[in-house]
Amino acid sequence: MKKLGLALTVLVVIPILVVTGYLHDFITLGGGRTLYTAECAGGVWRGTTCTGRLVAGDRYRFKALKPHGEVLYWVAGTKIPSGKLSECTIVNAREWACLREPAEPPPITHAMKNGRPVALGLKVPTRHCVEKWKWLMLAQGATFFHEADT
What we know:
By secondary structure, the chain is α+β, with helices and mostly antiparallel strands. It has helices at residues 2-23, 132-139; strands at residues 33-41, 45-46, 49-50, 53-65, 70-75, 83-92, 95-100, 111-113, 116-117, 127-130. The chain has an eight-stranded antiparallel β-sheet. The protein has a two-stranded antiparallel ribbon with strand order 2-3. It starts with a helix and ends in an 11-residue tail after the last helix.
């Protein structure tokens, strides 16, 4: 009977951990990192709060190439060309900083710390980052969110 209880616990706990890891983007394929963005429709940004409603924005993907000191980036699901940041100090896919960027297309960030983008100067961004689970809900039409994560 104890083995059945243990087996049921494992069958319940492991899928919950995997789904939670996926929704919080802790589990990634290929060591890349994706930033999920939200835009403010029908309002303006006041810090990370949208006075209108949040809508799903673009997904920015980053692939850190530690041996080359480069970070490749692109916007998932669009025809926008990819770019490459160079002169990068790379700890891992979640922690890196780059000094040089190409003219086009501009990256959404030059650095990541603990898997979060580091702010780019004083200009107010037109989109902010949100957690993957929130982006998935926004993409499905959720309208009750007004706060971005960064």
